[in-house]
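Today's session is about reading a structure prediction critically. Students often jump straight to the picture, but the first step is always the sequence itself: look for stretches that repeat, for charged clusters, for runs of hydrophobic residues. Only then move on to the predicted structure, which in these notes is written as discrete structure tokens rather than atom positions. Here is the chain we will use throughout the hour.
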Amino acid sequence: MRTGPLDRDTFEAIEAYVLGRMDKEECRRFEERMRHDQALQQEVQLEREHIHAVELAGVVRQIDRIAGSDNSDEAESGRDGVTRSPMRWLAYAAAVAVVFTVAWYLLRPPLHEQLYAEFHSPDPGLPVTMGADRNYEFQDAMTDFKMGRYPEAVNKWSDLQANGEGSDTLSFYLGCAYLELDEQAMAKQAFHQVREFPGSGFHYKADWSLFLITLREDPNAVASWSVDPASPYADRMRTVLQRLSE
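Below is the predicted structure for this chain, in token form.
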């Protein structure tokens, strides 16, 4: 996060982006700028939260008005103090429903993030067969990967690569580990390495992972993705593209 105040131009650009006031070209340039500026990404998220808070505050005030308008119902209470008119409780129920609906609408992630969350799932990894052979280090890292210890897996597989142990399998699972750590740049680099191995059995998996990373980073760029009809992930890619275009 920046320690000093934002300059006026940046503040106005953030506000225009969050409120959807930019045209497509301005939006594309601003998103390109955000990709290279983590502090700007944080400022955009903070502005979204501020706007949501203001909008939700308006809903709360509306609920207060509903509650205040029903104070007259107290006159209809019986001697036991129980309100006889159901209108007050219906008003409260409606107000609660409004809060949940508005909160869900305002706080939900953008469509491309929803699609990423829906279609991405961690790779289950390969079966681990520990032994005294030369693949012990790889298998040890695979155990870490399958247990969700992604930093340990990255460190061990990176050491193997540094020692010249290159393979499409190693590159693919290194990319998967980076992806689960949300280090997308490193994940892309590893998945692109898979493509350098002719006839790799991980080619389509790596392509699908690159598709999802692009979806998350730049939904406009993924719209022009060339779908290989031979890929077992082709239908899923088409579904994502279809939903983005709706």
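Discussion point for the tutorial: The mean pLDDT is 80.
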